[in-house]
Every structure is written in structure tokens, then in C-alpha cells.
Design a protein that fits this description.
Catalytic activity: beta-D-fructose 6-phosphate + ATP = beta-D-fructose 1,6-bisphosphate + ADP + H(+)
Pfam families: PFK
CATH architecture of the largest domain: 3-Layer(aba) Sandwich
Strand content: 15-25%
Main location: cytoplasm
Number of domains: 2
EC number: 2.7.1.11
GO cellular component, one term: 6-phosphofructokinase complex
Shape: elongated
Bound molecules: 6-O-phosphono-beta-D-fructofuranose
Distance between the termini: 56 Å
CATH topology of the largest domain: Rossmann fold
Number of helices: 12
Strand order of the largest sheet: 4-3-2-5-6-12-13
Largest sheet: 7 strands, mixed
């Protein structure tokens, strides 16, 4: 079996075991484009590298678009070869730069961008980003018939259709490292530490960090906590003989870490500190799980375009590739693991 056969048979095997996106019989693309959009995520560079290298392997040229849809609207593009993506697999951020584009939200902006793609002879676009970016890709396909494939790149892990998103594993490690350090000082001063982590409207990062960091409590947007419960958590901890506590709060929890810290202090009078980890969670060298995921998904996106798929996101689920219609990635929601939430509660006894 040649390398090419191996690649296509793996893709066919995967496609046969999971729901497939729309597939057409259009000829193999000769040139495709790739961009990163929305908040950056560690592993985006590994995905860009995978797209360029996989496309080259299959005889397809790649155009890199700078600054996401903003750059597409402005025609800020250049050809990328395999050597252009050397030495980036280990780097955080995105070498293509990223932006949250306002012009792309207008049909006129999208028409300009589509014109640039057509002028460059681009037959398909790979968008690495989150659900906002996938909206932009979906409209481009709907309005201008340009095949698009989404690659899930966001630290939030909030996209339906994939077990994990690129950047999530690294963000959890970064937040966990901070929590471990905060625990040292919390224990020494016998203080309550409230730590707010990112995740937008989802609590995936918060839950994993809470379990891995041995937190006393976790506050998720997906779970309701009556006001009196917040202080009760701390009193219970004290009654159990704990001199210090770590409370993890997802930024999407109503009022965020600020509300929890204020409630704890007001209701218990205990010495409480708030740490908002913020954008530090988006930086840093990607951990191996993010690099591997990005490499797999970048390659899968190229294969999907070659196979004539469009308007879908490539992802991973049940040990194989998944292909989810783009609109489902934002219309359906991915819940946090209720089982893990129960586990977090059990282990904070
Ligand atoms: O979506 C990634 C994310 O980091 C969220 O966790 C956070 O809510 C948001 O982006 C922050 O966006 P910005 O970088 O525009 O402040």
C-alpha cells in the first residue's frame, strides 16, 4: 500500500463509522487556503503546519491568509510551502495571526473576501477557530459556494461534534500550574483562594482544573449555586478541618470569580483572595495532546476537501474522526461531564 492509499483508506474507514458531512463529486482542489480566526489557542500552529504538509503531500497548493477573516476581506494572503511551516509545531499563538472581524459579519465584506479567494484560484478554505469563525465560514459557503472545512481551535472546548478542541489541553495545564502555586500560598496563610478560569459560556476548563487541582468547590455556568451555598461551602470546609480552600470559578458563572469572592468574604468574614487567570491561559507551548490533535485534524481537513466534503467541522470522537455540519457545532451544545462533576463533589469531602 502506498502512503497515499494508506491515507485515503483511513479516511474512508473513519467516514464509514461516523456521520458524514455533505460530499460532492467536484474535482480535487488544486489550491486551498487556510486561516486562523477568533481567540488564539496553543496548537493552532501545529494545525497550520499539518494543513500545509498534508496538502503538499497530496499535490495541493496552500495559501495562508493573515489575520483571519479580516485579512481575507483585505486580500492579505501568500503561498505557503512545507518549509514555511518548519519549527512552528512547538510554538503557541498563531503565525498567521488572528482577529475577530466585524466586516465579515456583513454580506458585502464576505463578497470582497470571496472575490480574493477566486482571484487566487482557491478551491476550498480551511478555518481554524471556534463557533464564531464557523459562522463566518458557513456563510461564505452558502453565499459564494466556496467549499469550507472547520477545524476546532479554541481553549474553551465548547464545540459540539468533537471530544476536544485544539488548545484545551494546554489551557488546562496552564491553569492547573497556577492553581498548584496558589495552593502553596493559600495553605501558608490559611486563606480562601477564588480562582477564575476562562471558558466563555462553558465550564469545561473549570471542571478539569478543579478535579486535577483538588479544589474544594467548582462553580460552573451549567450548574446553579444558591447564594447561601457559596458561604456554606467554605464553612463546611472549615468544619472538616481544612484551614485553606481553593474555589474554582468558570468565567461564565454569573458574576464570575468576583461575585463568589465577594459572597464568601461578606458571608464568612474570612480572609479571601481572588485571582483571575485571564489570557495567560491562551499562551504557551502546546502540550503533546494538543499537537497530536492539531496534526490529525489539520490532515483530516485537507482530506475532507479532497473528498469533496464541505460546510463541516472535522473532530474526534469515539476514537475516530467525526464530521459535523458546521451549523450543528453552534446549534447543539456540548455539556460538561456530569459524572466528573459528581466526582469533584465526592473527592472534596
Ligand atoms: O474563546 C476563547 C476565549 O479566551 C474565552 O475563553 C474568553 O472568554 C475570550 O476568548 C476572551 O476574548 P478576548 O481575547 O477577545 O478578550
Amino acid at each position: 500500500m502506498t502512503q497515499t492509499d494508506a491515507h485515503s483508506s483511513e479516511a474512508q474507514l473513519d467516514a464509514a463509522t461516523v456521520p458524514s458531512g455533505s460530499t460532492s463529486t467536484t474535482p480535487k482542489p488544486r489550491r486551498i487556503a487556510v486561516l486562523t480566526s477568533g481567540g488564539d489557542a496553543p496548537g493552532m500552529n501545529a494545525a497550520i503546519r499539518a494543513v500545509v504538509r498534508a496538502a503538499t503531500f497530496h499535490g495541493v497548493e496552500v495559501v495562508g491568509v493573515r489575520r483571519g477573516f479580516q485579512g481575507l476581506h483585505q486580500g492579505d494572503m501568500r503561498l505557503l510551502g512545507p518549509r514555511d511551516v518548519a519549527n512552528i509545531i512547538q510554538r503557541g499563538g498563531t503565525v498567521l495571526l488572528t482577529a475577530r472581524s466585524h466586516t465579515w459579519r456583513t454580506p458585502e465584506g464576505r463578497t470582497l473576501g470571496a472575490g480574493h479567494l477566486k482571484a487566487w484560484g482557491v478551491d476550498g478554505l480551511i478555518v481554524i477557530g471556534g463557533d464564531g469563525s464557523f459562522h463566518g465560514a458557513h456563510y461564505l459557503q452558502q453565499e459564494h459556494g466556496i467549499p469550507v472545512i472547520g477545524v476546532p481551535g479554541t481553549i474553551d472546548n465548547d464545540l459540539y461534534g468533537t471530544d476536544h478542541t485544539i488548545g484545551y489541553f494546554t489551557a488546562v495545564e496552564t491553569a492547573l500550574d497556577a492553581v498548584d502555586k496558589l495552593r502553596d500560598t493559600a495553605a501558608s496563610h490559611e486563606r480562601i483562594f477564588v480562582v477564575e478560569v476562562m471558558g466563555r459560556h462553558a465550564g469545561h476548563i473549570a471542571l478539569d482544573v478543579a478535579v486535577a487541582g483538588g479544589a474544594e468547590e467548582v462553580f460552573l455556568p451549567e450548574e446553579e449555586h444558591p447564594a447561601e451555598h457559596i458561604a456554606q461551602v467554605v464553612r463546611d470546609s472549615a468544619a472538616k478541618g481544612k484551614a485553606s480552600s481553593i474555589l474554582i470559578v468558570a468565567e461564565g458563572y454569573p458574576g464570575g470569580g468576583e461575585a463568589v469572592a465577594r459572597a464568601v468574604e461578606a458571608q464568612t468574614g474570612l480572609d479571601t483572595r481572588l485571582t483571575i487567570l485571564g489570557h495567560i491561559q491562551r499562551g504557551g507551548s502546546p502540550v503533546s495532546s494538543d499537537r497530536v490533535l492539531a496534526s490529525r485534524l489539520g490532515e483530516a481537513a485537507v482530506l475532507a476537501l479532497i473528498e469533496g466534503k464541505s460546510d463541516i467541522m472535522v473532530g474526534r470522537g469515539n476514537g475516530g474522526m467525526t464530521f459535523t455540519p458546521l451549523h450543528e457545532t453552534w446549534e447543539k451544545s456540548k455539556d460538561v461531564s456530569r459524572d466528573l462533576y459528581r466526582c469533584a463533589k465526592t473527592l472534596s469531602v
